[in-house]
Amino acid sequence: MVSLQTPVCDFGRSAPNFNLQGVDGKTWTLDACNGEKGLLVMFICNHCPYVKSIRDRIVRDARELKVLGINCVAIMSNDPAEYEEDSFENMQRVAEAFDFPFPYLWDESQEIAKSYGAVCTPDFFGYNADLQLQYRGRLDESRKDAAPEGVRRDLFEAMKLVSETGAGPADQIPSMGCSIKWLES
């Protein structure tokens, strides 16, 4: 398992469109996912210890961001042949077990992860209402284990600012996680 950090936020970069199957049986597009004040695109998976340690916090933040007009979507781009835990069936189980309040989509070809420039799980891309990138940072100071309760909620605070002003914070701390498991060419 390779641990990586996300690059610095490329402010203003437009969100790439997608058309992906969700665990709910629906096909989702960027426009269908977007909220009134923005969209948080999360690249996650089922097996990664970094994601496992914060799943409950992702769900909490997604519910609170929805009230602020920010919708969320999660995309799984790993090759499930390498990690069975990341199979579509297991995606369905995880989404149900954690009561995901957002679409959980499978990027089977990995083209969407590549178009976003995703490098790890979790990798967060926070967009304003015009779908311009405003946040590319961490959820909080959690790593392979959840940070203590009461730590600064970096992602939530950044996306709250985006909902209020359309712009994200200038200072952002990169997310850290497991490398995306790319298909062999």
Automatic annotation (TrEMBL):
Q: Can you say what this protein is called?
A: Thioredoxin family protein
The record's section on CDD domains has: PRX_like1
Record lineage: Bacteria, Pseudomonadati, Pseudomonadota, Gammaproteobacteria, sulfur-oxidizing symbionts
Q: Which organism is it from?
A: endosymbiont of Escarpia spicata
Quote the InterPro entries the UniProt record gives.
AhpC/TSA (IPR000866), PRX-like1 (IPR047262), Thioredoxin-like_sf (IPR036249), Thioredoxin_domain (IPR013766)
Which residue numbers delimit the Thioredoxin domain? 9-160
Gene Ontology molecular functions: antioxidant activity; oxidoreductase activity
Top-level taxon in the UniProt lineage: Bacteria
